[in-house]
Amino acid sequence: MTNPAVEKLSTGEWSPERFRRHLAEASTPLVGPVRDGEVDVTFVDEPGDAAAVALAVVIGPRIGRNTVDEEFTAVPGTPFRVLTLRMRADLRLSYVFTRRDAAGREEQVPDPFNPPPRFAEYPEERFSGSSVAVLPDAAPLPWLAQAEAGPAPHSESAVLASAVLGNERRVWVSMPPGELAAGDALPFVVHLDGTPDHSAPSVRDALVRAGLVRPCAVVLVDALGSQRYRELLCDRGFSRMLVEELLPWLRERYSLSHDPADAALAGESFGGLCAAWTALHHPASFGNVVMQSPSCGYHPDIKWGNGIDLLGRAPVPMLIADFQAAARAPIRLFHDVGELEGSITHSRWLDEVLTGKGYDTRYLEFAGGHDYAWWRGLFADALRWCFPPAAEPRGTSPARSPR
């Protein structure tokens, strides 16, 4: 179905200048009315000399951006190209446009009429710098909106040298807003997918000011680029570094609690896998886990590819097997995953294991893919789960239920 504004452009009722004003007023993508839980979504590009334009979204079989087969079509007599797709009306998704020149060279760019939001830059190019579409029935993320609008919290940066791993990495520490009483030992969250401009401190500040979480420190740990793909895969050495080196190093510099119930370990994707695996094996150090779209299907003997293996036997994924085998550890787990990502089957499996073992856990599914557009906002739900106000019992802070 043609979007009404695009129809006015194509018939000449609107000039390109008038259409651009509409895009600025309405924001893109252009969204039609919701019918039966679905909506027509029109993406608009002004690609200049590009020979072709396609849409790439963070939903699909690939971890990262997946290209939609249908290309944009030109609006005759104008510099614009458009693509209209029918979508679930509750989606929130990151996306870019893939422009291809006559020589076949491709460039991925954000939507020129919907710039990437704050906190959209990441070390991994396959996620970084994306625009975000929020469709009409998408669950709101109010604390992310407040974080995006607020000032950047102060953080201190230092380099941690690890004798266990034989490397160095940068660590950023952000303390909560407000005055702290002398001798206060703060709860804290260590985030394994840290960057200097991560959204977590800003989300924390919004919640602290609203009185919805206890004042807590946020520690952001650099994942060292490609080393992330080795260190975060249930690596005993990396977990030892966190427990034996990072925690003492932090407590020498900051007044942080020694109670594992006041310590959370958080991560996204591989980082979520590592957070849960580390806490299971070191519950005296981390009593809370935040795993966002964890890669809990990982096993070192599972190989990915297109070959046919007639002798292979699928092992139980490592994190799931370890939780099955171990006695219930004194840890609490917050776990979110996208309905439209390939890892959801393993997340559901892990949740069944945790529930069956009697763990204190909060599990939710969101309408999207393997996507920072959700993780940034749902981190607020995780903090409320980990560190509710002192007068509010743990496990009672609001979080969305599974769909």
In CATH, the topology of the largest domain is named Rossmann fold
Write out the CATH superfamily name of the largest domain.
Alpha/Beta hydrolase fold, catalytic domain
**Terminus-to-terminus distance:** 29 Å
> How many strand units?
17
Helix percent band: 25-40%
Question: What is the architecture of the largest domain at the second tier of CATH?
Answer: 3-Layer(aba) Sandwich
> Roughly what fraction of the amino acids lie in strands?
25-35%
The outline comes out as globular
CATH class of the largest domain: Alpha Beta
Q: What is the chains' assembly state?
A: single chain
User: What count of structural domains?
Assistant: 2
Number of helices: 10
Strand arrangement within the widest β-sheet reads 10-11-13-12-14-15-16-17
Describe this structure in words.
With 403 residues, this protein is of the alpha/beta class. It has two domains: 131 residues, Immunoglobulin-like, CATH 2.60.40.10; 239 residues, Rossmann fold, CATH 3.40.50. Helix content is 27%, strand content 25%. It is built from ten helices and 17 strands. An eight-stranded mixed sheet has the order 10-11-13-12-14-15-16-17, sandwiched between helices. α9 links the parallel β16 and β17. The chain is globular and about 70 Å long. The chain starts with a helix and ends in a 17-residue tail after the last helix. The C terminus is likely disordered.
How is this structure best summarized?
This protein is an alpha/beta fold and 403 residues long. It has helices spanning 4-11, 16-26, 142-149, 200-209, 228-231, 236-253, 270-281, 318-325, 344-357, 372-386; strands spanning 30-31, 38-45, 52-57, 66-71, 73-74, 81-88, 92-100, 106-109, 131-134, 156-162, 167-174, 188-194, 217-222, 263-268, 288-292, 332-338, 360-366.
